[in-house]
Design a protein that fits this description.
Layout lengths: L1 E4 L2 E9 L5 E5 L10 H7 L4 E5 L16 H14 L5 E6 L1 H12 L4 E7 L8 H25 L6 H4 L1 H13 L2 H13 L13 E6 L7 H10 L4 E5 L6 H4 L1 H14 L1
Parallel strand pairs: 3-4, 3-5, 5-6, 6-7, 7-8
Antiparallel strand pairs: 1-2, 2-4
Helix pairs in contact: 2-3, 4-6, 4-7
């Protein structure tokens, strides 16, 4: 499915139980909505899932950058608007987690609950993102795939579950480098540190003990900053905790959505 916003086309899927509460899902940098495959069958039994390809990724448009996290978030919400969904749960991982935070800050009237996994109020540094952009420009997605995708998962994941590993690797290679760079630039300028304390919707923060990109202490800091939030640090989970430890992730998210 497609929707248009601000001159761009956003591609998304809707799966799960028709008429059930909606869950708006946003993926990480360098992946696409297929990242949520481990959640579809599980969460789709009791929810209507709206899975969005973030601007610059998947089948969505790749306009010239740089982008902002607010821009990416507005485009994600546009998918809910296109489906006539006024209120929704929102969940995201990594960059998608920052998008979920932004939506909870700026549109609390739309949000039933917010889940931010493997993310932070500020992810990385401007210098670090500038170096990533330069590396992609110099080496391309192919030249950086081994290094970057290795940071997505715990060390044993490729041998334990080679199918999902290979799919994520192929998705990274297929990501438009201009869209990837524009989203790196969005993360470089995004700092929600002074805003997340205003989040008032039910919130779940998820981290992973093996996450080298956004270590668990960042999840703990985010939990401390958001009043009445819940925290789950998943043992053995890497950066894409929803794929690395799907059974634990699914169980925790489902219990949270039911309580919210």
């Amino acid at each position: 499915m497609k929707t248009a916003i601000e001159g761009n086309t956003i591609d998304y899927d809707v799966v799960g139980r028709r008429g059930a509460p909606a869950v708006l899902l946003s993926h990480s940098l360098g992946t696409d909505r297929s990242m949520w495959d481990p959640q579809v069958a599980h969460l789709g039994r009791e929810h209507r899932l709206i899975l969005v390809d973030i601007l610059g990724h998947g089948r969505s448009d790749v306009p010239p950058g740089p982008y902002t996290i607010g821009q990416l978030a507005r485009h994600v919400v546009a998918a809910a608007d296109s489906e006539g969904v006024e209120r929704f749960h929102v969940a995201g991982v990594s960059m998608g987690g920052q998008i979920a935070l932004w939506i909870a800050v700026h549109h609390p009237e739309r949000v039933l609950s917010m889940t931010a996994a493997n993310t932070a109020a500020r992810v990385g540094t401007a210098e670090g993102w500038a170096a990533r952009v330069e590396a992609i420009r110099e080496h391309g997605m192919e030249g950086m795939a081994d290094e970057i995708v290795a940071r997505f998962f715990s060390s044993g994941f490729p041998a334990r579950d080679p199918g999902p590993w290979e799919r994520v690797y192929r998705t990274f290679l297929a990501t438009d480098p201009d869209g990837y760079i524009a989203c790196c630039e969005a993360l470089a300028t995004s700092d929600l540190s002074e805003e997340v304390g205003a989040i008032s919707v039910p919130s779940l923060i998820i981290g992973g003990t093996e996450d080298v990109s956004t270590p668990p202490e960042l999840a703990e800091s985010l939990h401390a900053a958001i009043p009445h939030s819940e925290l789950e640090i998943i043992a053995g989970a890497g950066h894409l905790s929803n794929m690395d430890t799907p059974d634990v992730f699914n169980d925790r998210l489902e219990r949270f959505l039911a309580s919210a």
